[in-house]
Design a protein that fits this description.
The chain is an alpha+beta fold. The chain has one domain. It is built from 7 helices and 12 strands. The strands form 2 sheets. Strands 1, 2, 3, 4, 5, 6, 9, 10, 11 and 12 form a 10-stranded mixed beta sheet that branches. A two-stranded parallel sheet has the order 7-8. α7 links the parallel β11 and β12. It is elongated.
């Protein structure tokens, strides 16, 4: 058995603020479980998540073409390998910004009964638990925004999960990736997500309530925060339409 500690990319300062825009149910789940949910990469709406850049795909396909035809492995092509990686990669997405962001409220707080949880890279790193055996890689890195055909050079297998198309650049994303190992064949199911323990009391620095939420909802969020012993202030966001 071995443990994996979250590895943080050098370019991320420990003081960098990170935000998660979530609905009330996910907020309560975060506090009640004291855990982050990492979703399997192929469950995201964007079906290009984790897909090989063009040059990398060509190199992998050539490698499989050179293998012995008698190979008994269930993974026999770049597509098979891609599916395998996506079904064994789990992600938690965070928005990097000093303050709240109106676009993120619009996209991820469509319902006014939503909150934004703010932490920092350092707080996340020091309060997230190590992963027990079953994990291969456990990273917090910046997302690179590039077209598949523009990504060159030899990449490790986790790299595609930190590359997104340029039109997502507004997300300013840093993400946690947990890569696991499974002996299953690519078309079989792995869990839709995994949880990783997080000391939420120490990790959360601020909670913003949707700018357009009603006063009763702000009170509910404050009550929930108090119930779980959070010291983080609860404030109303400022970028909404409410007068």
């Amino acid at each position: 058995m071995h443990n994996l500690k979250l590895k943080v990319e050098d370019s991320l300062s420990i003081d960098t603020r990170l935000w998660r825009y979530i609905d009330l149910a996910k907020f309560v789940s975060l506090l009640d479980s004291g855990s982050l949910w990492l979703a399997r990469s192929d469950t995201f709406r964007d079906q290009s998540e984790g897909r090989f850049p063009s040059e990398m795909r060509v190199a992998i396909e050539r490698a499989y073409e050179s293998f012995d035809d008698q190979n008994d492995s269930p993974i026999n092509s770049a597509d098979d390998f891609q599916e395998y990686l996506c079904r064994n990669s789990y992600v938690s997405c965070w928005h990097k910004n000093i303050d709240e962001n109106m676009v993120m409220w619009e996209l991820y707080g469509r319902d006014s009964n939503a909150v934004a949880v703010q932490t920092t890279v350092g707080k996340l790193e020091s309060n997230i638990s190590k992963i027990d055996s079953g994990g291969l890689e456990f990273y917090l890195k910046n997302v690179q925004y590039s077209r598949a055909e523009d990504v060159e050079g030899k990449l490790d297998y986790s790299a595609p999960f930190f590359i997104k198309r340029p039109h997502f650049n507004f997300e300013k994303e840093a993400r946690i990736l947990l890569s696991t190992y499974s002996a299953i064949i690519p078309n079989k199911d792995t869990p839709l997500g995994v949880t990783v323990k997080l000391n939420v009391v120490e990790a959360i620095e601020k909670i913003l309530v949707h700018p357009d939420s009603q006063d009763w909802f702000v009170k509910v969020v404050q009550s929930i925060s108090d119930k779980y012993g959070l010291n983080a202030p609860v404030e109303r966001g400022v970028y909404g339409n409410k007068i």
